[in-house]
Specification:
Keywords: Hydrolase, Lyase. The protein is an all-beta fold and about 90 residues long. It has strands at about 5, 15, 25-30, 35-40, 50, 60-65, 65-70, 80.
């Protein structure tokens, strides 16, 4: 059973559909083609929050819905909890 959804192939993050525990191996489903990905969570990820499904370089733009939703000042790696502590807006 999946524990997160990815809106579009090419996105950097998925959204938890239930709480994910640190160290838990979880399956995500790409909504545009129903394919799956398996990721080990590096931290606890609450329902509705984001999990990294790929590595992203320092200052890289974070994609969700196929669009940039912010940037990662320090980057992140596969399985990281992605939230306001490690992404920033592109608006200012």
């Amino acid at each position: 059973m999946h524990k997160f959804l990815i809106h579009k192939r090419g996105d950097h993050v998925g959204v938890a559909t239930s709480d994910i525990e640190s160290g838990e191996k979880v399956i995500g489903v790409f909504m545009d083609d129903d394919s799956t990905i398996e990721v080990v969570a590096k931290g606890a990820i609450p329902l509705g929050h984001k999990i990294a499904i790929t590595d992203l370089a320092k200052d890289g733009h974070v994609l969700e819905y196929g669009l940039p939703i912010g940037y990662a000042p320090e980057g992140f790696t596969l399985g990281d909890y992605v939230h306001t502590h490690n992404i920033r807006t592109l608006r200012w």
